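From the shared-data thread, chain only:
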Amino acid sequence: MSPVIEQPATACLITDAPHPKTVSVTLRYDGADPLAIRIVFPPEVSLDDDDVVWAFARDLLESGLRLPSGEGDVQVWPCGRAQVVLEFHSPDGVAVVQLDTAPLRRFLDSSYAMVPVGQERHDIEVENELSKLLHRT
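Structure, as tokens:
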């Protein structure tokens, strides 16, 4: 079983409402999928009362802490020195959330301690080769 890092964070949902809504989210990194990170939103912000999970490249979050990054479904950019904005596009619409940079940085640092940059593909290749060896009959 691969190690998993989970870290709580607070996200501010940016809408056209007069006051933004604050929700608790979970940042998740799974060593079995070392190129991706996930942000898990609670059922209260879902259209179907289920957790909403967005997965995207770890390096996208890293670069988005410094400069506008991403194309397509997920875009990330710094908002001042202490916050970052994530924009998620789906067939149901667009969600824009703002998070403090510090917890995201701590989360990324923990993920890099688990799987350093450049080792992501190596870990996948090793696991694939081990799987092949163990499942031979």
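The first strand starts at residue 4 and ends at 14.
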